[in-house]
Specification:
- There is one protein chain.
- The chain has 118 residues and is mainly beta.
- It is 3% helix and 54% strand.
- It contains one helix and eleven strands.
- The protein has one helix at 29-32, and strands at 3-7, 10-13, 18-25, 36-42, 49-54, 60-62, 70-75, 80-85, 94-102, 105-108, 112-117.
- The strands form two sheets. Strands 2, 4, 5, 6, 9, 10 and 11 form a seven-stranded mixed β-sheet that branches. Strands 1-3-8-7 form a four-stranded antiparallel β-sheet, with no helix packed on it.
- The radius of gyration is 14 Å and the shape is globular.
- The relative contact order is 0.32.
Length: 118
């Protein structure tokens, strides 16, 4: 079973940057490369939403609210996916989760807190 561990969260002022990492284990790099990876976030009292996703081929898509500010990337050799977050806003405050999916397989990390103060 794939295990995902997020890191890189923290507190930052509006306009600042953070880089989240999602490290996978119990999976080879070649198998990991076949997974689609998504970064989701959940703010208090709100539903979990997709922020950014990257396919096995490297194509990406973003929520409108983060386009131009966030960048998702993957390093299959390191079995890690990144989310570079720039120009952060208070409304980006949430717990950020990493998800890996391949056919019927679906795995989640434990989440990392991002807090943006104004």
């Amino acid at each position: 079973q794939v295990q995902l561990v997020e890191s890189g969260g923290g507190s930052v002022q509006a306009g600042g940057s953070l880089r989240l990492s999602c490290a996978a284990s119990a999976v080879s790099g070649s198998t990991f490369s076949r997974y689609g990876i998504g970064w989701y976030r959940q703010a208090p009292g709100k539903q979990r939403e997709l922020v950014a996703a990257i396919s096995s081929s490297g194509s990406t898509n973003y929520a409108d609210s983060v386009k131009g500010r966030f960048t998702i990337s993957r390093d299959n050799a390191k079995i890690t996916v990144y989310l570079q977050m720039n120009s952060l806003k208070p409304e980006d405050t949430a717990v950020y989760y990493c998800n890996a999916n391949l056919y019927a397989r679906n795995y989640w990390g434990q989440g990392t807190q991002v807090t943006v103060s104004s």
